[in-house]
Amino acid sequence: MEVEKGTNLSDIENDLDEEPGEVIESAPPLEVGEERELGSSGIKKKLLKRGHGYEAPEFGDEATVHYVGTLLDGTKIESTRDGDDPLTIKLGEGRVVKGLDYAVVTMKKGEIALFTLPAELGYDNAAVRYEVELVSWIRVVDLSRDGGIVKKIVEKGERNELPGDLDEVIVKYRAALADGTVVAETPEEGIEFYVKDGHFCPALPKAIKTMKRGEKAKLIVQPRYAFREEGRDANEGFNSIPPSSVLNIDTELVSFKPVIDVTGDAKVLKKILKEGEGAWTANEGASVTVSYIARLEDGTVFDKKGVDGEQPLEFIIDEEQVIAGLDRAVATMKKGELAILTIHPDFGFGSVEVRRDLAVVPPCSNVFFEVEMLDFIREKAPWEMSNQERLEAAGKKKEEGNLLFKKGKLQQAGKKYDKAADYVSEDGNFGDDESKLARTLRMLCWLNGAACSLKLNDFQEAIKLCSKVLDIEFHNVKALYRRAQAYMEIADLVLAELDIKKALEVDPHNREVKLIEKNLKRLQVESDKRDAKLYTNIFGRATKKLKVEDEKR
């Protein structure tokens, strides 16, 4: 039977003040034979047989059910048991009775329950009972939110990962018109493509991005997400697609290879061929062992390690021992992981010709590495170290930073100083003598980091680092000097003057501070001239305006 015209999901929800599943989540599960009211809806549910799993259907899904409906006096009003086939209904449309849809969304697959529906949700304004078995259901999702791509999940996939735009997928599909005419079909093994490149029709990659490995789904695709008003000519032995055709596409996501944008600008891409073990990846300072084959775009092998009798390559992450792209990508790999790296010249060999073991790498070449992470030893974190180890590690990192600073490698030097300061942070349980040494190391690293930031024109970072030093040692001349430099660069001349005055109070003859004091005075004179000119222009315009107004009077 069908309910009165106009019944839909909103009618049901307006009659009920709780969402499907809310009672189940906030109360113990029903025991077999137990009856309970579903929220304040007036619907009572008595469990007759437990279902399987933990998932329940939602409004919009297609549920296949058997049911027997009776009046409260036992008079049968309708039943699917009289025939062999259960009924498939779209939940939320109220195809049987209003209350039944709400009842079904509280059930699990295979569950049998007896529902008592109040008159306003029952049959012809009469209270009724429905014994319902949820045989199965298909999840139905409106992917485009405009009805243009509707996905019915036929078979669930494995795991939780979904492919992204950059990933390479293997997909099997069969596309047909409404009358069943097949217009496209992949080989048995499927077809491989990158999601971002698209395939067949616009709906397919959109749907693929919502699917898990092994998932099978039916897609109902409206023309605007298929071949629109143009249609498609007969192709590869398949029939043509007429203009404005709706397509039914049976789809399976066989597998996919994740592609990671390592640098965030697509200049170093990592396509995972084999996933690694565990949760850890190599970190900055880790000692790694890898094997690889390196190729040019035409397939020419220009280098290889750890294959064909070659020794594997061992190097330390973030020490510039290999090209930046390889360094950055390997730092994201787990033990046993196998991946193909695509590296732009900016992170490869740049704009110069480079001779490698097996071939020459031409200028501005994209290069490709098939890399396997054989092993790595992570650098110890501060909390894994003794106090003495932390102090030694901080001193070592600071010296490494100093060497990089002398070579003009300022960003790398800054990272070393940051790492050194982390080793001797205030959360360490240092003794008195150790605490003094840790504090000194920490301040030296912040001061050196500020020097890097000044040269890199990162003036706010320089101010922040100098301020950390001054919080500990308010009269530190170097910190005042460098912070004053940063303030001058951002035209905060008042604060710069304050820092210079404090520094000269501590060290009146400091040559460097006196030099920037001289520069500050020059900047102040220039600033005063600009201000004077600005005010002259403002007052000049105002005077001229008043003169014109007086003449009009």
UniProtKB/TrEMBL annotation:
Question: Biased-composition ranges for Acidic residues?
Answer: 12-22
Q: Which domain of life is it from?
A: Eukaryota
Q: Which keywords annotate this record? A: Isomerase, Repeat, Rotamase, TPR repeat
Q: What catalytic reaction does the record list?
A: [protein]-peptidylproline (omega=180) = [protein]-peptidylproline (omega=0)
- Indicate the segments forming the PPIase FKBP-type domain, all copies: 60-123, 166-257, 285-377
Q: Which GO terms of the molecular function aspect are on file?
A: peptidyl-prolyl cis-trans isomerase activity
Q: What is this enzyme's EC? A: 5.2.1.8
> Which ranges does the record mark as transmembrane?
none
Report the top EC class in one word: isomerase
- According to the record, where are the TPR repeats? 477-510
Q: Which SMART domains match?
A: TPR
The segment annotated Disordered runs over 1-38
Per the record, the similarity remark reads: Belongs to the FKBP-type PPIase family.
Q: What name does UniProt use for this protein?
A: peptidylprolyl isomerase
Q: Which organism is it from?
A: Malus domestica (Apple)
Q: Species lineage, top-down?
A: Eukaryota, Viridiplantae, Streptophyta, Embryophyta, Tracheophyta
Gene name tied to this protein: FKBP65b
